[in-house]
Amino acid sequence: MSEALAGLAIASNIISIVHITGQLVGKGWECVRMLKEAPKELRAFMGELTSLHGVLLTLQDQVATSHFASQMAGFSVLDMLNQPDGALEACKSALVQAKHLLDSLQTTTLFSVVSALTKRRDIMTLRERIERLKTILILALHSDHL
């Protein structure tokens, strides 16, 4: 019974992160569209966030499959991802940062390109963090095939 609850907790966590990421992808690409000349850093960041969303959707699909779900609760890699200091928690933290960043771009007058340019360092740092988290999740996806 506790294994089933652990599996549900992992699945629920992944579903919520996929949902939040999907919302941010939509919001971010809207920012890019509104900026007539969006900085390349913002476009690269949005590409990485979109890619993370795809990886999370793949992870969600694998968790949802009956074969994978039956083994999920005892699957140490997924358990590690779902730890308080694991990759899923780190994804949530990065997504909170992404939301603040995108909110700050949206609240500036007319999606100012200058505002986006002044946030270049924040955008690049967050893109690199998301890229590392995506790599960890991809490794976790492939570890069930070993």
Measured between the Cα atoms of the first and last residue, the distance is 27 Å
**Largest sheet data:** none
Rg calc? 17 Å
Average residue-wise pLDDT: 83
Notes on the structure:
This protein is mostly helical and 146 residues long. The protein has one domain: I/LWEQ domain, CATH 1.20.1410. 84% of the residues lie in helices and 0% in strands. Helix 5 (87-107) packs antiparallel against helix 7 (120-143). The two termini are 27 Å apart.
How is this structure best summarized?
The chain is mainly α and 146 residues long. The chain has helices spanning 2-34, 40-64, 66-72, 76-81, 87-107, 113-118, 120-143.
Keyword list:
146 residues, 84% helix, mainly alpha, 7 helices, I/LWEQ domain
Strands, helices and their partners?
Layout: H1 2-34, H2 40-64, H3 66-72, H4 76-81, H5 87-107, H6 113-118, H7 120-143
Helix pairs in contact: 1-2, 1-5, 2-7, 5-7
